[in-house]
Amino acid sequence: MMSKAIFSLPLPDNRKIKLTNEILQMLFSFAQDHKNSPESGGILIGRVLDCNSHIVVDHASRPMETDVQTRFSFIRKAAGHQEFFNQIWESSGGRCFYLGEWHTHPEKDPTPSTIDKREWRKLLNKTIQGQNRLFFIIVGTTELVVWYGQRQASKNTFLRIGSYCRNEIQN
Ligand SMILES: [Zn+2]
């Protein structure tokens, strides 16, 4: 039987972000654990639960053919990811929204590079769907780390809210 395990991390405002076993498995399937495996990435899509305002990550797009993947870089193009989003948005009756981005790193316990932070700042400043908060995930070879980005007048901030170990995720 398929596991429905849901793993949650606490946010600074007492809410939680929840990732399903299925999503975590999918993200770890792109881990750069071989010397040739390229960097991968995509967008995170989810919804806010009416009952308690917790955030659930329901979907994540996979690398598309138009993206540029090398060992140490991933350039996501809008094509494909936008269509993926539109489909989910429509089938959810407009309940799902853009939550942020994920990408991989060829290191065990990943940390964002200077370029990553610059990209994350840009995304926060775009205010996609009116959001001033986004999640950023980096999938390492043994750990997956989640950051919570907040747009602020002075400087955007990124808070590391937690991580998942690859071996705690069921197959
Ligand atoms: Zn990176």
Automatic annotation (TrEMBL):
Pfam families linked to this entry: Prok-JAB
InterPro entries on file: JAB_dom_prok (IPR028090)
Domain JAB: 34-141
Keywords: Hydrolase, Metal-binding, Metalloprotease, Protease, Zinc
Entry protein name: Mov34/MPN/PAD-1 family protein
Originating species: Paenibacillus illinoisensis
Upper taxonomic lineage: Bacteria, Bacillati, Bacillota, Bacilli, Bacillales
